[in-house]
Design brief:
The structure is a homotetramer of 274-residue chains.
Chain A (H helix, E strand, L loop, with lengths): L3 E14 L3 E5 L10 E10 L4 E5 L5 E7 L2 E14 L37 H8 L6 H14 L1 E2 L10 H7 L1 E2 L1 H14 L4 E7 L14 E9 L2 E5 L11 E6 L8 E3 L4 E12 L4
Parallel strand pairs in A: 7-8
Antiparallel strand pairs in A: 1-6, 1-14, 2-5, 2-13, 3-6, 4-5, 9-10, 9-12, 10-11
Chain lengths: 274, 274, 274, 274
């Protein structure tokens, strides 16, 4: 076992609901590794029943009803992560579609926010002539990273990859949607990843959120992590879930219109295992 | 066992490809019932290897490589179906979201072609005041059936439910996408179904295709069949698969640009079981 | 939401291993309800990486390597459970095999410890003439409860239902294996359940463990809880997992021969949610 | 694509039932490759409804009710198989348990007929000193092949691997159960495979059945085929399904006691694809 470091990750939501409102939360770390979930706690005030299930994508979901009136939902976890920067291999080849595993094909199709069909011409124009493989995906990441300007409030729940390609503005999920669209347009399987992204051994602008979206791309014989928003290998990503796009791994889905009064997210290194 | 009738269903595709082209076909009847698959045969000319797999949605997929040059892919099946019109129950209630089974929630979300988010206001304006339940879904079906004009060539692979709501033109998949969008906007789980639709005991215009798209809606404690294109209970539907929208149950998905030279589909009653 | 009560459940294992030893733990509460997992913590001393996965049965498994030398593994959770005794309905009918859902058939087959094939004659002799339904299963439970004498150390990892039928001695898992064997011999789907069983509102002999095994039987249109060891409806069962028999939901599976030096299990009501 | 050859595989069962009897058949070729299912046909006389489902193991099952009185169930398929002998690599290493994929662990456990727990000492005595890897599994296969004498009627539905180890007699499923037991005792994942085994390019004794059981063993990073009964690499195996042991891939499971009056199985090379 390599060296481990520890993170405190979590989030708190304050709601005001006119009526009892069903909700699904996807905020627990994925337990398949490499992060080890050491402890966690849910607190809902007032207390309500809650149950977990695994969705089509294998993501953990927690389902509860927000009570009428004011309520808070708080999730707090301690995780151990390897003290290692994620792997990069510029020389990995693309896998011909004919050799892709059956279950990777799902991630070549368009979805609500990821539009390889609309952006196909642009993808081929920009990246079609490049040598297939890791470097071509890296070129996509660099293009998207430079093409978009980061800005909270520049996109909405209706904003697609085609929209941000046009507006040149977005948040991390928009960066991911655009880069994934380009990959899929080139028949490279790419999936959306949502998680906690701590600032281990990097210095980030203070405004940055601790929830983050990035992508995994199938090259060679496995999935590789790329981050179109930050465009640098990192330590300590804590995956929450994966899917076709942001809809499949939504932090919160509510069936009704509770007012979100406050939201806090954390993802901080802590000294011990504590 | 009730009385059974027999259908010959199938399809044939003629391609011309510049290069070998990976393809996935979803044309085999779903084996979970009520149709019984009695025999079937695949013929690819020239002959190629093919294998089957089950996707995320449990749909059967067949994967092969179309060879360079001219090729044909032919699928032909004999199925037995109950001699019974599909069930209708105008009095079934909607299920409150809080009581929906976990795996139905997937079908409340937007997807590539189904846009309950964009069409939410319209859905609530048109159907929000109606009594929840089977009758409300029937009202959606009737609205969509009247709102759209059927026409081949009026929609493209980029056409969403919002587009057809605007253009008022489409084919059966567009009818389904629009009706499903309205259901999901009202938090009623609805899924897209693709299959063979024979003309058992009904008289249809001769131009109608034998592939068809319809929808299933979760009411009470199960999924019910509704057909926004035809708006009448039928006999003999042969389901191929189900999913969020047409992308999840595509007749053919190709990874490349083979020229489709010819396509035939059949779904005809035959006298005996032979 | 009904009234909730709170339990502290967990376990601690002390090992001494000659070499690093892979191990799988199944001790986390099942998250599908009705218990709500509020918080939990793992502690391994020395600290090691661990990851979770879901097995064929949907059970949560945690996989780690016990280090060479002395080590401890501790799991501690706080759960909220409904303040309600589990449901009983003496009038529920058996479901004819032809009407069973496909996935219930798995639980009609023999398995390592559950031997409906060996015990078929005995099952039909004892219970074949009884009216099918909940009462017949209750008769099986009562028979097993009276036929066996509880005793730690009376069975081994090789002991089958046929063995305990003969020896008339066993622990809770043996009671479950025998009752499940009789159910399956009568073509009634029955599955093994492993979990924490607190003594809420009952007085139990002090020697009783807090891990327990019981069974679920498919009657009418769902699974019902029966407890051949205790033979009384209870409050607060916390399911860990379900399977064909004890092998599918083993508290710990080790690949090697670490010495288990100490083991403690707890399942106690606590006053508040804290 | 390599060269393909064609097989006709199938089976026919004649029953006489006092009452309508639910039954599950597992006789269709697995569609995941390398065999390509080109056509198949079911015939039940008298005709009955039937539906297919996929079990926990991903095996295709067909479920129907045998009617009261005389009935026949016939399945006939044409498959294309590669003209290639299955792969052997004497130098593949065993995978340490710690490096096994999560889903391989299921195949290290005991099951109804496979008893690595009972046969552990024997396994370690015979094979514990050998160099881990393909050659050790080959030694197991050779031992079992020599230890047992083939004979129809020497085993029953109650016969375990420990029984045949003792009796030294069995049919192909017993050979498989014993070899799988030895593998699992050594912590090598091994699973039971059931299928059609044609005599392509080999000469076999005329009494041999066309249904056969063999095993797959996880070595290196994938599953490898071994055949304890025949102990030679073959061409044209057509897998029906895989599981822990013969119970998970039973040709037929009936819920009742119909009299099997006749049974025929075929697995023959045919000249063309027609």
């Amino acid at each position: 076992m390599g060296s481990l470091r520890h993170l405190r990750v979590g989030c708190e939501f304050g709601y005001d609901s006119a009526i009892e409102t069903p909700a699904v939360f996807q905020v627990q770390p994925y337990e398949g590794g490499p992060a080890t979930l050491m402890r966690h706690a849910w607190e809902t005030t007032p207390q309500v029943e809650r149950h977990g299930y695994t969705d089509l994508y294998g993501n953990g979901c927690q389902r509860l009803n927000l009570p009428a009136g004011a309520s808070t939902v708080r999730y707090d976890a301690l995780v151990a992560v390897p003290d290692a920067t994620e792997e990069v291999d510029l020389d990995v080849a693309e896998t011909a579609v004919t050799d892709l595993p059956d279950d990777a094909l799902h991630y070549t199709l368009p979805s609500r926010y990821v539009l390889p069909d609309v952006l196909a011409d642009e993808a081929w124009r920009l990246f079609g002539a490049q040598q297939p493989g890791y470097r071509r995906v890296q070129a996509i990441v660099e293009h998207v990273n430079g093409h978009l300007e980061f800005g909270y409030g520049t996109s909405t729940p209706l904003t697609t990859a085609a929209d941000v390609h046009e507006s040149r503005q977005g948040v991390c999920r928009d960066y991911a949607h655009l880069a994934i669209s380009f990959c899929r347009a080139l028949n490279i399987p790419a999936r959306y990843v949502f998680g906690y992204l701590p600032d281990m051994d990097v210095v980030l602008p203070p405004a940055e959120m601790d929830f983050a979206a990035w992508m995994e791309v199938y090259l060679g014989d496995r999935w590789w992590t790329f981050d179109p928003r930050n465009n640098q290998p990192r330590k300590g990503r804590v995956v929450i879930g994966r899917g076709r796009d942001a809809l499949d791994v939504a932090m919160v889905t509510t069936y009704g219109a509770p007012v979100l009064k406050a939201m806090t997210v954390w993802s901080d290194e802590v000294a011990g295992a504590g």
